[in-house]
Design brief:
The complex is a heterodimer of chains A (114) and B (111).
Chain A: E1 5-7, E2 10-13, E3 19-24, E4 31-37, E5 44-50, E6 53-56, E7 65-68, E8 75-79, E9 88-95, E10 104-105, E11 109-113
Parallel strand pairs in A: 2-11
Antiparallel strand pairs in A: 1-3, 3-8, 4-5, 4-9, 5-6, 7-8, 9-10, 9-11
Chain B: E1 3-6, E2 10-14, E3 19-21, E4 23-26, E5 31-38, E6 45-50, E7 56-58, E8 64-68, E9 73-78, E10 87-95, E11 98-101, E12 105-110
Parallel strand pairs in B: 2-12
Antiparallel strand pairs in B: 1-4, 3-9, 5-6, 5-10, 7-8, 8-9, 10-11, 10-12
Amino acid sequence: EAGVAQSPRYKIIEKRQSVAFWCNPISGHATLYWYQQILGQGPKLLIQFQNNGVVDDSQLPKDRFSAERLKGVDSTLKIQPAKLEDSAVYLCASSLRTENTEAFFGQGTRLTVV
Amino acid sequence: AQSVSQHNHHVILSEAASLELGCNYSYGGTVNLFWYVQYPGQHLQLLLKYFSGDPLVKGIKGFEAEFIKSKFSFNLRKPSVQWSDTAEYFCAVNGGGKLIFGQGTELSVKP
C-alpha cells in the first residue's frame, strides 16, 4: 500500500515570496491533515479536511496561509507571502475517518525562509 | 480547548534501562490516544494506539502504554531500551475528531 506522498521534500525561498506544498493521501482516506512542525516542537494542526470540506482551520493564519482539497483527494497548502517564522517542516497526514483510526504521515516538506 | 502535555523534553538513558515517558491531556469527552515515534531522518510512525477496552495497550518494539482515565494520562513504557530506540516520541490525542500532538520527548540511549 502506497503511503502519503508529499512534494517537494525541501524548499528555500526568500521572505515575501510565495510557496505551495502538495500532498497525495493514502487511497480511500477521507480525512486529511496539514501540520506545521517547528524545530524542537510537536506538530501543530493547521487545517483538517473531511473529503473536500474543512473540519477545522482554527490554527491556520488565514491572512497568509490557504489550503484546498478540491476533489476530496489531493491537497495543496500555500503560503503567500512567507515570513521568516514560517520556516518549519510541513507535514501531511491522512486517515480513513476522523475518529477511531490512526493517521499516517508523509515525509514532510522542509521549508526555509531566508 | 484540547491540549496535550509531555513531561520530559529530553531523556538520556543507558541501554537496558527502563523507560517511562509521561503524557497528560485535557479534553472532557471520549478520546483516542496515540504514541508516535520519529527516528532521525524518517517520518512519524505509529507506536501504539488506544481506542477503547483494556487500558493497557501493547505496541511495536516492546513498547506499552497505560490509559488512566482519572488522571487524563497515557504514559509510555518500555522495560529495557536499546540504542536503536533513540528517537523523538510524540503523544497525540484525538478528541472530537481533532488530532492534537504534545511537544515531544527526545530520547537518547547510550550504548
